[in-house]
Every structure is written in structure tokens, then in C-alpha cells.
Amino acid sequence: MRVAILSHPDVSLFELGCAVEIFALSRPEFEQWYEAEIVNLTNQAITTTGNIVMQTKYVTDLNDYDMLVVPSWPTRNTTIDALTASEVLHFSQQNKRIISFCSGAFLLGGLGLLDGKKATTHWAFESQFRARFPNVNYVSNVLYVFDGQYGCSAGSAAGLDLGLAVIRQDFGYAIANQVAKRLVVSAHRTGGQAQFVDTPMLHVPNQFSESLQWAKANLRQPITIDLMAQKANMSRRTFDRKFRASMSLTPQEWLVIQRTELAKGLLESESHNIEQLAVQAGFNSAESMRHHFRRIVGVSPTQYRDQFNREG
């Protein structure tokens, strides 16, 4: 898959770097990987954050690429140059995947590509984005969102989350995990932007963190929230309150998400039937796993296996 990472005079260096790290870094340990280039449609040197001047590949069209990454775009209401507008629209009409990091959604919104679609951007731009693009189904408090061929991430580092999600779609859970380890980031962060919005990060006690680590290591066993609270040396009420403040979701929902992630890995690597996999992932029953899997992942376990299982 050939990837075009779009650079322009207003590009953000950090978001551009995230796109390069995810898609353009050579990964010889994998048999198949992306072929990515940083391109521009303006034929000029680019001065970005910190007055760093870059020269990227000038192209007059995007026909040679299968996916387009828009790392950022000006949030002010400016005219989109004719070539960029025509090429991105043409790319979209070919039903090719387009993903945006942070303010990159403003380019897609400005071209009308997100009308009637789910989209997101950095929480600081939400009110501005909603006002300018009222026909977009804006999604708050998420790290990223997909709708058909389009994917949008929230601000800055959430581009890594979206990039890893794209890798999971294209190459599977195991390879996405390897890339995440190389990046020294979580393969799948839970929660949304609410944990970052104009509030300091809460101090998480060591015992609280250790309780979560213990739960993740024992997902296949029955785990009660009372036991997790006990491991954290907290009362149940204090534990629930701390969990919501730190993770923006309930302990029970967090457990379900962790078990769903475990089930995804098992579906890719194991040939056991769904009933056996449900037990291995810690669900009460196969029906429970199917329900939560479809709710969280968007497809059934069987559909997921058909798409990603490397054994078959």
C-alpha cells in the first residue's frame, strides 16, 4: 500500500513526525509494509515549527497512492488552494482511505468530505469545528473515529492511536502490537479526550496502578470490582471514584474492553471455537463475548477472525 503524507506551509512538525514514524519508517522485520512518501502540492520549501525548513517531494497529483494522511491543517477559515482541493476530492471519489491527525480534519471538513460523517479533532478546536461544519456528526471525547473511508484523530499524540488502528486493520493485531512496542506506547488506549481537557492529570497511586496491572494479567480468571479495590487498598466507593476520574469509564467497562482486546489477539492466533475462546478471554459465555465484541469492535468475533486470522 502506497501512502502519501501531505505536507504544506502550515504543517505541524509533531503531527507530521507521528505520520512519518507510523507509515514511513522502514520495518524490515515485516514481510509486507507501507511504502510512504512525504509529498506537497505547492512546490515550495516548508518552514514549520521552530523555523525548521524542509524540502519534501513535489507531486502534481495523488494518483500513485492508496492512502492519504493529512497530519494537520490551518484551523482559520482560509481558502484551500485549487490543486490541493481538486486532488484530495479526486482521491476521495476513488474511495481511497483518507485519515487526518488533529487539525487535519479541517481540510476534509472544508472540502465537504465529512458531511454526514462521524469526525473528531482536538478538543480545543471542537466549538470552532462544529460552528464551521454543522453537517458533520462531530464525536466528542474520543481519541479517534472511523466512518467508512475516513478516519480522524484527536490532537497530537492521538494520531499514533489512529495510526495503530489503521495498522490493525491492514496487518492485524499482532503486528500492530509489535509496532506499538517499538514506539513504546500502548497498543490500544482506552478512554477519550475528557481525561486531557484543561485539567491536570490526576496522581494515580502505585497500588491503584498495580491493581490494574494485576487485573490485566489475570483476565482469564473471574475478577470482581471488589477484589480490584482490595488490591488497590481502597474502599469500593473510593476505587470507583478514582477509576472514573483517572480512566473516564467504569471499572466494569474497562474490564470488558481489556477482555475484548485479549479476545482479538486470540481470534488472530488461535483456532479454537468461539465458546472456548470466550472462556480463555474471561467472558462468562460466548453470547456475552459476542455482544460486547460487536458493541466495541463493530463486527462479530467470527467476522473479525475471517478478516485477521493469519492461521487461515
Mind explaining what this structure looks like?
- It is a single chain.
- The protein is α/β, with parallel strands linked by helices.
- The chain folds into 2 domains: 182 residues, Class I glutamine amidotransferase (GATase) domain (Rossmann fold, 3-Layer(aba) Sandwich), CATH 3.40.50; 113 residues, Homeodomain-like (Arc Repressor Mutant, subunit A), CATH 1.10.10.
- The strands form 3 sheets. The chain has a 7-stranded mixed sheet, with helices on both faces. A two-stranded antiparallel ribbon has the order 3-4. A two-stranded parallel sheet has the order 8-9.
- Helix 5 runs antiparallel to helix 6.
- It is globular, with a radius of gyration of 21 Å.
- The two termini are 22 Å apart.
- One of its GO terms (molecular function) is sequence-specific DNA binding.
- Pfam families: DJ-1_PfpI, HTH_18.
- This is Transcriptional regulator.
- Keywords: Transcription, Transcription regulation.
- It comes from Vibrio renipiscarius.
List the helices and strands and how they pair.
Elements lengths: L1 E6 L5 H12 L10 E6 L5 E3 L3 E3 L2 E2 L8 E4 L11 H12 L3 E4 L4 H6 L7 E2 L6 H7 L4 E2 L5 E4 L2 E4 L4 H14 L1 H11 L22 H12 L7 H7 L4 H12 L3 H19 L4 H7 L5 H12 L3 H8 L4
Parallel strand pairs: 1-2, 1-6, 2-5, 6-7, 7-11, 8-9
Antiparallel strand pairs: 3-4, 10-11
InterPro entries: Class_I_gatase-like, DJ-1/PfpI, Homeodomain-like_sf, HTH_AraC, INH-QAR
Protein name: Transcriptional regulator
Organism: Vibrio renipiscarius
